[in-house]
Amino acid sequence: MSAVTIIWSMFASACLTMAVIYFLVWYRSRAEWAHLWFSLLAVSAAGFAYAELVMMTASTPAEFLSAMLWAHIPLFVWLVSITWFVKVYLAAGRTWLAWTITGIRAAFLLPTLLTGVHPNYLEMTGLRHIQFLGESVAVASGVPNPWTLVGQFATLLIMAFVADASITAWRRGDRRKALMIGGSVEFFIIAGLGSSMLLVWADAELPIVYSVVNLGLVVVMAFELSRDVLRAGELVEELKASEVGLRESEERMALAVEVADLAIWTLDLDRNNIWVSDRWRELFGYPASERLDGEAIRQRVHPDDLPAVNAAQERALAGANGGAYQIEYRLRMPDGSERWLSSHGRVETNAEGRPIRMRGASRDITTRKRREQEMLLLRQEVAHVGRVSMLGQLSSSLAHEINQPLGAILRNAEAAELFLNHPSPDLDEIRAILGDIRKDDQRAGAVIDRMRGLLKRHGIEARPLDISDLLSEVSALVRVDAQARQVTMTLDVPRDLPAVRGDRVHLQQVLLNLLINGMDALADIRPGDRRLQVSARLNGGGTIEVGVTDSGPGVPADQLAQVFEAFYTTKASGMGMGLPISRTIIEAHGGKLWAENAAAGGAVFRFTLPVVQKETAPV
Amino acid sequence: LTIPPTVHIVDDDASFLSATARLLRASGFTVSAFGSAAEFLAGRETDAPGCVLADVQMPGMNGLELQAALAQTANPIPILFLTGQGDIPSSVRAMREGAEDFLEKRAPKEQIVAAVERALARDARERDDRSRQQALRARFDALTKRELEVLAHVVRGKLNKQIAGDLDIHERTVKLHRTAITTKLGVQSVAELTRLVDEADIFSAKD
Asked: pTM for this structure?
């Protein structure tokens, strides 16, 4: 067998192999059209190689011509597939140009197929044999057909098209592809064109060896494509890895949801479709079979909480807090029981910012709420006990406060009796006495009311109140006690302070506690130096700061925080609950209570209370 | 010299003050009312008879301090205390310092009236004592310093010889002094002399 036959057969089979491989690659996904074009390109290269082989081994001009004529079919496919391969693979190039090329090549081929007139030679003059690779191969000579120019024009268009597409790809950043594909196509086309021109026009002593050129191009393209195939393989691996990761994170999420006992829900706003997790159905008491809609959910929400739930949803939909939705509310179950839920969610919007869905998680917080309520009750109970024990400490003061008006009433009544014993009673005097009796009765009543207020159990009911009234009231309560203990009490309170929001009784308790503590701290001080000052002032940040300063020994610096711990006491009969209770009360009012030492010696206990906004101030 | 005794009421509670004043006035006493101890000390007639009815707990000078201040004056009229509640330590202290009584503010009227009457009677008695003592003491003013020394020995029951020895004077001189003493004081016997010295209380007052 001759070398030419072996080599050209090898060319053809190499091209065919690659055609099959890439056809299969394309066929598997049917997505990468570049692979199909390449496969076609390789098939046509194989076909062309075969035609060339036939031409080179032709023994008659007719045989040669026939092979050459048929070679135009793979050539057509070859050029068209190069064009479209470049177009698809580089994703660049002008579509109209690609179609123009396809059209011209088709037009070039069509007359040949229809008439049998050879596009390259008008007339075949003879067949020569030349030496090629150590053997004799056939080379045609004849009168060139000008029609050939049409085909070669199309080839020039291909070069222009490829150059344009490559530049576009290069500019886009796909420099490697642009260089490899664009460069090689241009190079091999120039080579092919050159040889064809030599052959046809110059009648060169050269066999038709396009296949060498073609194979080169096929190899370069295959190499380039294989990179992509390899990359695709890597991508598959990566995808698998990320799928594993995704599954892992899904499992983690599921575990978190389960452990946190979250009930997940999604509300599709466009379709008004609600998706909920099993746990959600369990919480709301809806079996899996029951269809859910907004109405069904609203029916479960406790009627008292429904407005708040609606408002929270509207706020989120309006985009407040970045569309975050957060609320604690109650459910009322069909059996009448109540269930507390904490729901957190977020509104998701489309590209235009229109809300399209809400997604969230709800949790059963009934136990926590119950505990909170129990704690609240307990705290109120402790506060109440604190007040009762404080009243015990104030009992002498209170007795005095009540005995004073009662004593006055008694004396007035006795005096009136004596006046009435007169033969002509002084009625004016008696009238004055009765007026005084009424006044004193009211006074005693007020003391009892105040005491009852302190003794009553009640929760914190915050109302706007005047801090200077409160301070003078409480000072009046301890005044007698202060006198008995020879403590000089001063009040430094501006009259024009804004109202604070607070519960009168609870704040009285705090103040009484601080005042009694202050007086206790003065027990070992010389009587003339026992001073207790109550002051109030407007702080920045919308709070009023109240301070109780004593002239006692002060609190050791390391115990300033400790004094607020439960059961901390320095008194023989103290419970150690006064300050912890006071702090709880102040914090429940949104304020702070702390201790410090005054520069001049002695302790200062200060607390803050938020000022009421103007529109809700008391009249 | 028939100034009616005045009941001075001192209480910081205006209402109780006026009610008590009214009652005592209706009960026939002459009454003056003061809102504080200081007001009373500054405003009272220094020499007038009467008594004080004061609240124990008052701002500024309290009842017990008033009692102490009153005791320092030339006319320490008796003091009665009124208190809102039974305050045992205060009452013990008050009574030990010679308070006439310690009453609850809502004690029966009769108790208060009786206590006031008692206090006024005591004041009258004490004033009597004081004026008699003053008259007696005036009699002793005639004695010389030496005679007073001799007298001190005499009332202790010492013999002339002992007195002479103690004072380092002649026994006859002692006798002369004794005669001068009895003549000046107008007494007959040593027994009478001793009683007079006792009543005038001159030595204990000076010791």
From this structure: 0.49
